[in-house]
């Protein structure tokens, strides 16, 4: 315990509150990271052995960018990877990660959803600047995503960019879209989240951010788990797997470990 915080230092908690995002370098390392990377390789290669209630999407190889051996099917996305196996339940309920999300969002914490966002070689990001809020409306904006990076992820190698302190208000979106009016976004303050394998970046639901392109020969892979406070009521009709599952009450974590990870 640190000032009542479960995982974060006081400085990290203040940074998240003030900036709307938080980079946690080396969150996973050593054997824990190796197992995570191995399980992930199984996830994107043994795709036929999975329950039907999770989904994969694949990217056609970009010209001049063959798929790499770690992600040979060019999986570009997944929804509900948490259903893949006990390991993936253990990933989103990892006690230090849940602790970090409790520290960011409050002592009563629920799961929101899980997905995979890969940037295979030659991936070009078309989504643009956005807040996650229009995609996941709730009674109040007490949600955040935890992105776990499995590869070094730098500028033009799939890095996520964030605009610090953009999380204080919901901004208008493009007509009939959920992305922001791109020309209204002041990019001059954007930060490139240069991540290493095993880093986690937490992004507040109102923080303006975007995914980067990947102009390298190596797939840049990441898992995104989203969490919310129990008091944030779903207005979006969240049908994702395990949506709303209670993870902590009064700061006490509820989920047992299922594997030896
Ligand atoms: O993949 C990334 O770098 C960011 C993902 C993202 O923007 C999102 O899922 O909302």
Describe what you observe in this structure:
By secondary structure, the chain is an alpha+beta fold. It has a single domain, classed as Jelly Rolls. Helices cover 17% and strands 22% of the residues. The strands form 2 sheets. Strands 1, 2, 3, 4, 5, 8, 10, 11 and 12 form a 9-stranded antiparallel beta sheet that branches. Strands 7-6-9 form a 3-stranded antiparallel beta sheet, with no helix packed on it. The longest helix is centred in the N-terminal third of the chain and has 16 residues. It is globular. The model has no long low-confidence stretch (mean pLDDT 97). The structure holds 2-oxoglutaric acid. The site of 2-oxoglutaric acid has 8 residues, from strand 9 and strand 10. 2-oxoglutaric acid (AKG) binds next to strand 9 and strand 10.
Number of helices: 4
Question: Strand pairing plus helix content: what structural class?
Answer: alpha+beta
Oligomeric nature of the chains:
single chain
Described by the principal axes of the CA atoms, the overall outline is: globular
**CATH homology superfamily name:** q2cbj1_9rhob like domain
Mean pLDDT: 97
